[in-house]
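From the shared-data thread, chain only:
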Amino acid sequence: MGSVVSRRAALTTLAGAFVLQHVPTAKAADRLRVGKASAENFGNVPLDVGMEYGIFDRLGLTIEKFNFGGGSRVAQAMVAGSVDIALSGGPEMAFVAKGAPEIAVASISSSAAFMGLVVGAQSTARGVDDLKGQNISIASVGSVTEWMVEALNRSKGWTAPGDRMTPVVAGGSTQTTLATLKSGAAAASLTATQVGFAYEAQNAGRLLIDCSSYVGSFEIFTTYASTALVNDNPDALRRFLKGWYESVAFMKTHKAETVQVTAKVTGYPLEVATRLYDMFMGKFSTDGRWDPQAIETLRRSFADLKTIDGPIDMTKLYTDRFLP
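Structure, as tokens:
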């Protein structure tokens, strides 16, 4: 005899099938290739903190991180389509002006304190006035390091040939900078402030001043997005920026964890990582908004260095429409 199915049982079976058909499948995480201009830069550490503590994961993002040896190299990777997002310097907006397929999408920091004048262990300089008329090593001609040396000359009124500090190219590596200081080829180096901290830990030199003492707001570190990402997956970009600023907020309340991550990704000892946190944590942007004065100072640097030919319309180089 055939089985008899009750009306209630039949409805239950149908309801179960309906539910199974409408259970949403887990959405695959969006993969973003993120390039750092410098692995040692504390300004890039929010990326590593967000990755370490699952902040980007919770936002449906899988981060593939790449380290590059400078802003020009990460910009080349952007042109080649090898990265979707770049963490680099504000001055790299010049690449946007020259047609690179990217745009600045958020401010990381507008504090010039991340740059400073560093002297070697043998230096007797006690203040910036002791550098009058001296050679100062810089990363390259036309770089922000050259502009900051000249900005100091202007602020001190050192315009005569015998008074002005003279920029000399030494390259951007910590090793070549130290060699230049040891040889006496330069009395100081305009470099990342953290280099001074690292030298102090090695008894090889020290930070003399940071550049915020004479440079006002300056768009120093910036997040860039490829044109392809902006056009094809703007939602992933918005989630990335949300994750970045959630990571900054986490760092502000989790010093010990941040110092550990900093030491691991930068290679600096814990004492240097702690100094970086203490000096710079309060100088991160918490929302990515652009500081008009910082943008104007950046524009002046482009004009002074003749980085961009012709009139400079900064508004075409950055946007705030993807910010949280």
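The longest strand covers residues 102-109.
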